[in-house]
Write a structure and sequence with these properties.
The protein is α/β, with parallel strands linked by helices. The chain is 44% helix and 23% strand. The strands form three sheets. It has a six-stranded antiparallel sheet with strand order 2-1-4-5-6-7, with helices on one face. A six-stranded mixed sheet has the order 8-12-13-3-14-15, with helices on both faces.
Length: 368
């Protein structure tokens, strides 16, 4: 699926803006703070149905306005129109070729997406929540049952935690209700667990191979799936932790505690890797995500690269560009503050690209 045209209204710093894209590779350059990342975020909306960079839709409203609208024209086997509208008092609506989605989640996977952003390193290495989010972000685009199971599990988990918090004394907790909720959680929990386990078994070696290419085979990466369900059945896990859950007033064990352990040459990456090595790892992770989605969906994902070249040395930059050239990609949108650096990067390849320069004033565009 190729994005040909994007029309924004009241989205972040854009009052009204129209972008036309005529290449598979689009380079967006300009100073910091002019809206390069905001443009990428609008593209993420067309793929994912929500912001990659903001936690809520409300944060994407241009200051002083009470709605935003995104309209996209896409080319696949046929041309398609996607419209996303948001109002704080009315929620979000999405339509595909003038047909409204009954569930916004029905759009996920239609246009697969991979995002590489500057904060990915900090977020991915900061805690297990972000590493689970990565697994969920990938698997949900491919497996609708996984997405439904995840939504169901999180709904029941919220109910179970709410009940645990609703009692001042442990003896007042309704154990029968907790058991009922636990048995309802079992099926989605085991589906999520098995999907994550199988995913990591094939995905981890791909990350390592990509990192080999970026590092000139100087380093090895291991990505290991960690889950309490690797050792115990879900119901057994809840029963063993019942007293602890009651005291702490939350569900302390389950697939919401899963994690991905990352090692570089056998040592924890977070502690032992340099900034360049960590950045190379994230690129290896995201290119492996790209390859996995393409293989399983048989659709070429959109790749967003936001301001990611600044701290990579020349050897790693060259390896990255060669890797991208070798991938059967869909569209790539990348941002950088320096036009000359982008031009130099693409001198390493024979890829034709479109250059869009965003100036310091709101919505002022110069296109080449």
């Amino acid at each position: 699926m190729i994005l040909e045209r994007l029309v924004l209204r009241n989205f972040k710093n854009y009052s009204e803006a129209i972008f036309s894209f005529n290449r598979r590779v689009v380079c967006i350059t300009g100073p910091n703070g002019v809206g390069k990342t905001n443009l990428l975020d609008a593209i993420s909306y067309t793929c994912w149905g929500k912001s990659y960079f903001q936690s809520t839709d409300k944060h994407c409203l241009k200051k002083g306005y009470d709605f935003f609208r995104i309209q996209a024209k896409l080319l696949g086997e046929e041309r398609h129109d996607l419209v996303i509208k948001y109002r704080p008092d009315g929620g979000k609506q999405m339509s595909w070729d003038d047909n409204n989605y009954d569930r916004l989640s029905d759009h996920i996977g239609k246009i697969p997406l991979v995002v590489v952003a500057p904060d990915d390193i900090i977020e991915f290495l900061s805690g297990s929540k972000e590493r689970r989010r990565f697994m969920d972000f990938t698997l949900s685009q491919y497996d609708r049952k996984y997405l439904r199971s995840l939504m169901e599990y999180n709904r029941l988990l919220k109910q179970r935690n709410a009940h645990l918090k609703s009692w001042d004394r442990p003896e007042s907790v309704n154990k029968t209700l907790l058991n009922t909720l636990g048995h309802q959680m079992k099926a989605p929990a085991h589906y999520i667990f098995e999907a994550r386990r199988d995913f990591m078994a094939s995905f981890g070696p791909e990350v390592n191979e990509n990192h080999h290419q970026l590092s000139g085979r100087r380093e090895s990466i291991s990505c290991l799936y960690q889950s309490p369900l690797l050792k115990r059945d879900f119901i057994e896990l809840l029963e063993q932790n019942y007293e602890k859950d009651v005291i702490l007033q939350r569900t302390t064990q389950g697939i919401h505690k899963d994690d991905m352990k990352v090692l570089i040459d056998g040592a924890p990456l977070k502690i032992h890797a340099s900034q360049g090595q960590k950045k190379s790892f994230i690129l290896s992770l995201k290119t492996a995500q790209f390859q996995w989605l393409f293989q399983h969906l048989e659709k070429k994902p959109v790749l967003l690269l936001d301001d990611f070249f600044e701290k990579l040395d020349q050897d790693r930059l060259s390896s990255l560009m060669k890797m991208i050239v070798g991938m059967d990609f869909g569209q790539i949108f990348l941002t950088d503050t320096e036009q000359k650096r982008v031009e130099h990067l693409f001198q390493l390849t024979d890829i034709e690209y479109q250059s869009i320069q965003i100036q310091a004033t709101d919505n002022e565009l110069e296109e080449e």
